[in-house]
Specification:
alpha/beta, TIM Barrel, Double Stranded RNA Binding Domain, eight-stranded parallel beta barrel, three-stranded antiparallel β-sheet, binds 3-methyl-2-oxobutanoic acid, binds zinc ion
Length: about 550
């Protein structure tokens, strides 16, 4: 590995989540959400935010203009780029939308022209054959934008599928540079590029173009940029090759990899790739970004919530990227958090989490119980773990913490009821309840006072387990409509200045109340006997 005397180049992060990202079906956001996203992008300190296509509609114009104005108030912020086609009215609208950032040099007009022969014909019609006019217009609109104070990025759209048009593309890039464009972005528009294409691979063509332009314009500092779509799942590899094997120091992509069709390259993957391999690698050149990786979780969560859902196993920021379930992995991680992580999830604002599932082990179970403040001794952890797994034997996808603790409470519960029976006679209610009470098989037969319910009968009978029981609140409601609808009851009882709530469900409303009371009493007794706090006081 070569580590000596290597300089490091800054790779500029160009975030097009608001432009190319919102082009993907279902990902569009309203005005406020666009601005909220722009705030997050400023927090993570990406270098350039492509805020939209202002000439598309009045609303798009308002979004780009408002983001530019918001950034203009900030001492430092990302630059704002706005995309347009090579048409005079679009160029004028786009310059107008960026106006507030022109004085601070943070306004970038991004103009594109198709160069892929298939794309040219399909989108330019007869104009596609008029190369002279294309050059003339390109020169005119770029100089117009530069004169207005914007910096200009030029994209030969469909660059990766230019085929035999290398010389034509050389010509348009030359015209763009001559007119003042300082950023040349070479898109793999259809996501079809692969290094196995050899000389046709877009990175190899970029190298040739960069060489030609540096010979023609030795005094111009042109930034070469890559913009890769992910149709073959190669966007990350292609983007990274354009840096490590090509002339690129700007990369374009979207958080969570959203974008047209299979998406754009995922920015969080690019950023973390550069953090992991940009420095001290086996090449002669180091690369870095200045993005604040700690904000990645927030921005990725925002995109997942407001734009398109993210897969749980999505690299870097997915729910499962730092979540573990299997016994072997959790055991090792409890001893060394990095045991099964390639980088510290804190770097991207995440924490390692665990989910208890069928393959989880007793150490994991013990740690959840203890985190919730309850006792689980080493000599009982295996039995307890097995009980919890059996209690939720159908839950193959894992348990939430509240479900897990529900099973823990069920294991510890002093009262385990097999059958609840009651009947109304004259003005009283009689109950007949079978179960185990502190491990002893028993039947509770009790009668309420005159006018009392099954609940009042049980309330008094249970006081022998926890006298006195003071019911502070009682609520029952139907879960759905119809005669067979489940009733859900919730009862809170107070004991030693604390409140314990029990829940019960049944199609019979009175039985649901009985279950809720038993549950509340069990919770109270378990807390009294098995909370770590109670144990400390007792010992
Ligand atoms: O994919 C593409 O070619 C684009 C350009 C407009 C940059 O999004
Ligand atoms: Zn694109």
């Amino acid at each position: 590995m070569t580590t000596t005397n290597k300089t490091s180049k800054h790779v500029h992060i160009f975030d097009t989540t608001l432009r190319d990202g919102q082009q993907c079906p279902g990902a569009g956001m309203n005005f406020e959400e666009n601005l909220d996203y722009a705030r997050l992008a400023a927090n993570v300190q990406i270098d350039i935010l492509e805020a939209g296509f202002p000439a598309a509609s009045a609303e798009d114009f308002k979004i780009v203009k408002s983001i530019a104005q918001m950034y203009a108030q900030m001492k430092s912020s990302p630059k704002v780029a706005a995309l347009c086609q090579m048409r005079e009215e679009q160029i004028i609208t786009t310059i107008e939308s960026l106006k507030s950032l022109i004085p601070s040099g943070r306004a970038r007009l991004h103009v594109y022209v198709p160069v892929d022969p298939e794309l040219m014909k399909a989108s330019l019609g007869s104009y596609a054959d008029n190369h002279e006019k294309i050059h003339k217009d390109l020169y005119k609109y770029i100089t117009m934008s530069i004169d207005a104070g914007c910096e200009v990025e030029f994209s030969p759209e469909g660059y990766s599928r230019m085929g035999d048009s290398f010389d034509f593309v050389t010509g348009v890039i030359d015209t763009a540079i001559k007119a003042g464009a300082t950023i040349i972005n070479c898109p793999d528009t259809i996501g079809g590029a692969c290094y196995l294409q050899g000389d046709d691979f877009f990175v190899n063509k970029m190298k040739r173009h960069a060489d030609i332009m540096s010979q023609r314009y030795p005094d111009k500092n042109i930034i070469w940029s890559a913009h890769c779509h992910n149709d073959y799942g190669l966007a990350l590899t292609n983007t990274m090759q354009s840096i490590f094997d090509g002339p690129v120091t700007q990369i374009e992509g979207c958080f969570n990899g959203i974008g047209e069709r299979a998406g754009n390259v995922s920015l969080e993957q690019c950023i973390m790739y550069l953090k992991a391999f940009g420095m001290n690698n086996s090449t002669n050149q180091n690369y870095h970004t200045t993005t604040k990786t700690h904000g990645i979780k927030d921005i990725s969560d925002f995109v997942a919530t407001h734009m398109l859902p993210r897969q749980a196993h999505w690299p870097i920021s997915g729910e499962n990227a730092a979540r573990h379930s299997s016994g072997g992995h959790t055991n090792a991680i409890l001893k060394n958090p990095q045991a099964y992580q390639p980088f510290d999830p804190k770097d991207v604002g995440k924490e390692i989490t665990f989910i208890f599932g069928p393959l989880s082990g007793s150490n994991h179970a013990q740690s959840i119980i203890q985190e919730h403040g309850y006792v689980c001794d080493n000599n009982e952890k295996i039995t307890l773990t097995q009980f919890i797994k059996d209690y939720f034997s159908n839950r193959r996808k894992g348990l939430t913490d509240p479900e897990f603790m529900q099973a823990y409470f069920a294991y510890r519960a002093p009262i385990k009821i097999k059958t609840y029976k009651y009947r109304k006679r004259a003005e009283v209610t009689e109950i007949n309840i079978d179960g185990t009470f502190n491990g002893e098989e028993k039947t509770i037969n009790a009668v309420s006072k005159i006018g009392g319910t099954a609940l009042t009968a049980l309330h008094h009978a249970l006081e022998e387990y926890l006298a006195p029981i003071s019911i502070e609140s009682f609520r029952s409601q139907s879960k759905d409509k119809g005669e067979e609808a489940l009733s859900v009851s919730s009862i809170s009882i107070s004991y030693s200045n604390d409140l314990y709530t029990g829940l019960g469900e049944d199609i019979d409303i009175e039985v649901s109340a009985l279950k809720a009371l038993v549950n509340a009493v069990n919770r109270t007794v378990v807390h009294k006997n098995f909370s770590i706090q109670a144990h400390k006081i007792a010992s």
